[in-house]
Design brief:
Keywords: Cell membrane, Electron transport, Heme, Iron, Membrane, Metal-binding, Transmembrane, Transmembrane helix, Transport. It is a single-pass membrane protein. Its main location: membrane. GO terms for molecular function: electron transfer activity; heme binding; metal ion binding. There is one protein chain. It contains seven helices and no strands. It is mostly helical. Helix 4 packs across helix 7 and helix 5 crosses helix 7. The protein folds into two domains: 49 residues, no CATH class; 105 residues, Cytochrome Bc1 Complex, Chain D, domain 2. The N and C termini lie far apart (87 Å).
Length: 175
């Protein structure tokens, strides 16, 4: 079976293959980089041409959409009711009917941790004192970003019109 000579041959073949790959890497580095891979002050230079592009000030300015008041003025309650179906898996709209999440009847303007019978995480207190339309808008965009550490697993509503529609729907529930 296996004797010392066979084990030595196998070990030598593995070491030889590793050595071959090491030399191939060094050769490729020397071939594809200027000066053996290292320039002045330890900087690595890659052979090729550098194309410099001027940065325009226009590219730095982020495109801003309409302001919050304009978005909320165009909110549609019926559309918000349809979009709310995503939320209804964890939230109920009947007063006092907590589920995985707290009930949302009268949530607009309510203190953040005030749904009776629901245990809130401390992370939600980072959002603010009350669920103002502005706080809800920010929270619904990305709950994990607005309140890091929250147990809410919803990824958020990316469209600003969807967020505004849901807020309008929630606001219409308690007249």
């Amino acid at each position: 079976m296996f004797d010392t000579m066979t084990s030595t041959k196998i070990l030598g073949a593995v070491c030889g293959a590793l050595l071959l790959f090491l030399f191939a890497k060094w050769g490729a580095d020397a071939l594809y980089t200027v000066g053996g891979g290292h320039g002045a002050h330890g900087e690595e230079h890659v052979a090729g041409y550098l194309i410099e592009v001027e940065e325009s000030a226009e590219a730095e300015v982020e495109e801003e959409g309409p302001d919050f008041a304009t978005i909320m003025a165009s909110a549609d309650v019926a559309s918000g009711a349809k979009i709310f179906k995503k939320c209804s898996a964890c939230h109920k709209v009947e007063k006092g009917a907590n589920a995985t999440g707290p009930y949302l009847h009268g949530v607009v303007g309510r203190a953040i941790d005030s749904a009776e019978g629901f245990g809130y995480s401390e992370a939600l207190l980072q959002v603010g004192d009350a669920w103002t339309p502005e706080n809800l808008y920010k929270f619904l965009e990305n709950p994990k970003k607005a309140a890091p550490g929250t147990s809410m697993s919803f990824s958020g509503l990316k469209k600003s019109s969807d967020r505004a529609d849901v807020i309008a729907y929630l606001d219409s529930l308690d007249d």
